[in-house]
Specification:
This protein is an alpha/beta fold. Helices cover 37% and strands 20% of the residues. It is built from 15 helices and 15 strands. It has a 6-stranded mixed sheet with strand order 2-3-1-4-5-6, sandwiched between helices. A 6-stranded mixed sheet has the order 8-9-7-10-11-12, sandwiched between helices. Helix 3 (85-102) packs parallel to helix 4 (118-127). The longest helix has 18 residues, at 85-102. It is globular, with a radius of gyration of 25 Å. Mean pLDDT is 82; it is low at 47-61, 220-234 and 259-264. It binds guanosine-5'-diphosphate (2 copies).
Length: 455
């Protein structure tokens, strides 16, 4: 009776295997120079901003983890400013729209030393119809005397203004209390209810063809977002209907805004890629099949694998691949990639001609099924008994480690915990992973095996 055994081991499993928590997001919005970055740094308890001070660089949607009164959450510093006044108003409105779609709480920051500006009014107008809670913060209120200035912000028609000084820490505790009290129990991003679009990150180094693929997919099928009448904003994500289902491609705004890539800020691009991978359930990792695999490709692959997401590898520009290149590519895959990923589906596509693009969806679906798959404890343990009987783990210090019990602690990705009387070396863990995959199939998903030694 494996249920009884499982109950015995339940305490030893510990809470580290609770389904990966998706933290709620607090978006900080407001005009340039009101002190958003200063406030973000105050909240996350750091001094310097991870922001490149280069004009024209969009530093939108960079997230940091915050903690207050034992509650963890993500803080999102938004940006993306255009220089002229008209552009500025547009980007403020966009920023607010994005926050309304993705954040769980929005903090609108104003500048107490300046008072209400037309920019503040633009955002407030958008935010007044927000279903997401909005907290109004009036920054640069450096002294008690200045508090009166904050009262003017009642005029925005939002809730009570919180007077604070992000630079000096004045009033930020009260703001944090309010933020934490307003956070929902469940983050929007954690929403995986039946019928919710699955989240896809399309990643790869510049020029591999990500935008081309997105355009192809959106062009041939229907882009849901583009069809919503009156949508003038540039949403960060795109809802795309493929194979009869709606998928959410995350952070496609970054793909569309090619201008910023031209700056070649690799550090920034890498942060953005990381963010997209973390926000996604499945990663389409794109490589240029016509060019040698590079370090940068391998870094993105590791990022996806380490994050524990389902992965489909798309070798793009297949129209440029001839016999010779194909031969070289096979060698490169063997040499460079087999250590990192053996389990991902590979599709050879051409975003330009549309070749084999339709193979992506079945690969994504299989991979996600694997990512979600759970093996019942009874089935797992009888399988394990057979495997161990045929090939026992190697001796350690003259003794044979006994694996007494195994359980799948989590899905997404499937994570197994083995309770053993002694250390199980990495080689045997890899062997077990191979066997697990042979028997149960986990195509397209990482599988993790943890060992708990228990005498
Ligand atoms: P952002 O563009 O909204 O992210 O604004 P920053 O955080 O970069 O801040 C803009 C300017 O306002 C910087 O010079 C900050 O030092 C200053 N600043 C930020 N918070 C405060 C504050 O509480 N009081 C005062 N006096 N200045 C502040
Ligand atoms: P991104 O930077 O990853 O978004 O790449 P783009 O989609 O902008 O593509 C970079 C260049 O590769 C463009 O000139 C595209 O026309 C070209 N390209 C994209 N996909 C293909 C393909 O399948 N075949 C060929 N021959 N060129 C492609």
């Amino acid at each position: 009776d494996w249920d009884a055994v499982a109950a015995e081991y339940a305490d030893d499993l510990g809470d580290e295997f609770d389904e990966a928590e998706v933290l709620p997001t607090v978006a900080i919005v407001g005009r340039p120079n009101v002190g958003k970055s200063t406030l973000v740094n105050r909240i996350i308890g750091r001094r310097e901003a991870v922001v490149e001070d280069v004009p024209g660089v969009t530093r939108d949607r960079i997230s940091y983890e915050g903690l207050w009164n034992g509650r963890r959450f993500m803080v999102q510093d938004t940006g993306g400013w255009e220089q002229d006044a008209k552009g500025l108003h547009r980007s403020i409105a966009q920023q607010a729209e994005i926050a309304m779609n993705t954040a769980d709480v929005i903090v609108l920051v104003g500048d107490g030393t300046v008072g209400i500006t037309s920019g503040d009014e633009t955002v407030a107008k958008t935010l007044r119809r927000s279903a997401t809670p909005v907290i109004l913060a009036v920054n640069k209120v450096d002294s008690e005397k200045a508090e009166l200035e904050a009262a003017e912000f009642w005029g925005l028609g939002l809730d009570e203004p919180f007077a604070l000084s992000a630079a000096h820490g004045r009033g930020t505790g009260d703001l944090l209390d309010k933020i934490v009290a307003t956070l929902p129990d469940r983050a929007k991003a954690a929403d995986t209810a039946e019928g919710t679009p699955r989240r896809v990150a399309l990643v790869g180094k510049p020029n591999v063809g990500k935008s081309s693929l997105l355009n192809k997919l959106v062009g041939e099928e229907r882009s849901v977002v583009d069809n919503v009448a009156g949508t003038t904003v540039d949403p960060v994500d795109s809802l795309v209907e493929l194979g009869g289902k709606v998928w959410r491609f995350v952070d496609t705004a970054g793909l569309r805004r090619k201008v910023n890539q031209a700056f070649g800020h690799e550090y920034y691009a890498s942060l953005r890629t990381k963010g997209a991978i973390e926000a996604a359930e499945i990663v389409i990792l794109m490589l240029d099949a016509s060019e040698p695999v590079t370090e940068q490709d391998l870094r993105v692959i590791s990022m996806a694998a380490d994050a524990g997401r389902a992965v489909v590898i798309a070798f793009n520009k297949w129209d440029l691949v001839d016999e010779d290149r194909r031969y070289m590519l096979d060698k490169e895959i063997d040499r460079e990639m087999s250590k990192i990923l053996t389990w991902a589906h590979r599709v050879n596509i051409s975003a330009q001609t549309g070749r084999a693009v339709q193979k992506l969806v079945p690969a994504m679906e299989t991979s996600l099924d694997s990512w979600d798959k759970r093996i019942p404890t009874g089935v797992l343990n009888s399988w394990l008994k057979d495997v161990i009987a045929a090939t026992p783990p190697p001796m350690r210090g003259g003794r044979l480690p006994r694996i007494r019990f195994a359980t799948q602690a989590t899905t997404r990705p499937p994570t197994f915990v083995l309770f053993s009387s002694g250390f199980i070396e990495a080689g045997y863990r890899r062997f077990l992973e191979r066997k697990l995959r042979e028997t149960f199939g986990f195509d397209g998903s990482p599988v993790r095996i943890n060992v708990r030694v228990k005498e």
